[in-house]
Amino acid sequence: MLTKDITIQHLETENDVEQHLELMRSVFGQNSRVDLQVRKWIEHHPTMTLKDFFVVKHRDKIVACLNLIPFRWSIGGIPLKVAELACVATLPEYRHHGLQRELTCEYHKRVSEEGYDLSVIEGIPYYYRQFGYEYALPLQEQTRIDINKMPDYKNVYAIRPFTGKDISRAGQLLAQVQGKFYVHSVRDEEIWEMQEETGMVADYEFEGFAVEEDEEMKGYFRTSENPESNELVLREITDVDQSMAQSIISFLKQAGKERGLVTLVATTGYTDSFTEHLMATGEARQGRLYAWQLRVTDYASMFLKMKVLFEKRLAMSTFRHLTGKLNFNFYRYTVQVSLEDGTVTDVRRLETNEDRTMRFNPAVFTQLLFGYRDRAELENVYQDFLVRPSHRHLIDVLFPKLPSYIHTDY
Ligand SMILES: CC(C)(COP(=O)(O)OP(=O)(O)OC[C@H]1O[C@@H](n2cnc3c(N)ncnc32)[C@H](O)[C@@H]1OP(=O)(O)O)[C@@H](O)C(=O)NCCC(=O)NCCS
User: Fold this and answer.
1) Percent of the chain with pLDDT over 70
2) Residue with CA closest to ligand 1 atom 40
3) Is residue 288 within 6 Å of ligand 1 at its C-beta?
């Protein structure tokens, strides 16, 4: 649908920025705060530039857009370069003319050219499947408890507002929490600073608190409020023991009551220690969760990146001396992994699909790769996910199911 009058560009001028913000307000709602988030990125993000904002212009008017947020993840300790697709919007009168298809194609070109291992989105259901995205990491795990039903504990810690000076220690505490997640994000110091300076994470305002014992910071947490639904939201928290969990519960209960809020909602994942403590009260409940949608740029490169991890897993199993070629048949092509005495010696893509020992729906395989589901679960559900009995244990060794959590780093 691109013509002489309809072109793909990037934001360039102040007028472009204003038009883009207006587009955000008109598509996502005047009170959505998506425009504030975009302004924050433009003015404060340490690495994003106007080139990361892709737009379609009809003559001089911006009618559709999306943007790329760069960030870093880790899978089993291996760093991944990740692009998040965000703020996808087309003006109603321009929809269903293929404008987003064109923009997404440009975006994926950039993702490949700039060597991103992965593109991810938290977005609307189903739509992104057509562009190769698959649900493959937990998102929006929420644990809710009525503030009135929170137990009464004594606060034995000093809890005070978080300041910029706490960033360095907080970074260590965050890394400690993230150590227990297979896939997690990695927050650079500049992102910490952007969040502290703007008082915003993503599009919401937050408050940070440091938890101290003998003037030493032992933990921190972040909260925000949803006044329209009377919710106090716990957005982020470090690892806690019983007494720290009880002190934070006491603090949050008091803060919630003082502000006239009714429910505490912890969005800190189902496997973090505070949430486990909250569930153990018997009063909290967990809701249905959503999932991150992922698109792996290239499985062969990804396997190569994960070589050390695969070797470690083989070394801890009966396959520690494995020699041979493993053909991951993705139906249209095969990724061949060569092994010698448990070491990966080569990974290459072959344009064949002859070896039928292991056949994988390539989208669904993302779930296995990221530890979201295991081989047996996927074989039960997907008829095009097929591993012969001879290779089942090996696949289970290489791809275990593990807990993951992505902290918000923008
Ligand atoms: C979703 C949205 C961005 C699509 O924009 P668009 O410019 O109309 O998209 P395109 O015309 O390029 O459509 C691409 C394809 O998606 C299909 N499609 C469009 N909207 C869809 C939807 N909501 N769900 C599923 N498929 C959809 C189109 O039919 C088209 O497929 P085709 O080429 O096979 O016909 C637009 O409807 C929008 O701005 N919605 C409101 C904001 C929103 O929800 N954004 C997503 C936030 S994550």
Assistant:
1) 100
2) 89
3) no
CATH architecture, range 6-116? 3-Layer(aba) Sandwich (3.40)
The pick from 57, 90, 133 for probing ligand 1's pocket by mutation, whose C-beta has the most ligand atoms within 8 angstroms, reads 90
pLDDT digits (tens, 9 = 90+) for 254-301: 999 999 999 999 999 999 999 999 999 999 999 878 999 999 999 999
The residue contributing the CA closest to ligand 1 atom 43 is 89
Rounded to the nearest angstrom, the distance between the alpha carbon of 96 and the centre of ligand 1 is: 6
Would you give the DSSP letter of residue 94?
G
**Does 100 sit in the ligand 1 pocket, CB within 6 Å?**
yes
Q: How far is the CA of 181 from the centre of ligand 1 (A)?
A: 33
The structure tokens listed for 349 are 């893509």
Write down the H helix ranges in 13-73. 14-28, 34-44
Q: Do the domains 143-288 and 6-116 match in fold?
A: yes
Question: Which residue's CA is minimally distant from atom 9 of ligand 1?
Answer: 100
Residue 3 — pLDDT band, cuts 50, 70, 90? confident
> With 0-12 CB in 10 A as exposed, 13-18 as middle and 19+ as buried, what is 106?
middle
The CA distance from 233 to 323, in Å, is: 51
Residue type, 147: I
Distance 51 CA to ligand 1 centre (A): 23
CB 292 within 8 A of CB 139: yes
Q: Is 88 in the pocket of ligand 1 (CB under 6 A)?
A: yes
CB 229 within 8 A of CB 146: no
The CATH number of 143-288 is: 3.40.630.30
The tens digit of pLDDT for each residue in 148-194 reads: 999 999 999 999 999 999 999 999 999 999 999 999 999 999 999 99
Annotated domain spans of the chain: 6-116, 143-288, 298-362+374-398
- The alpha carbon dihedral of 281, 282, 283, 285 has a sign of positive
Q: Which residues pair with 138 in a beta bridge?
A: 291
Rounded mean pLDDT of 16-32?
96
The closest residue, in CA terms, to atom 44 on ligand 1 is: 124
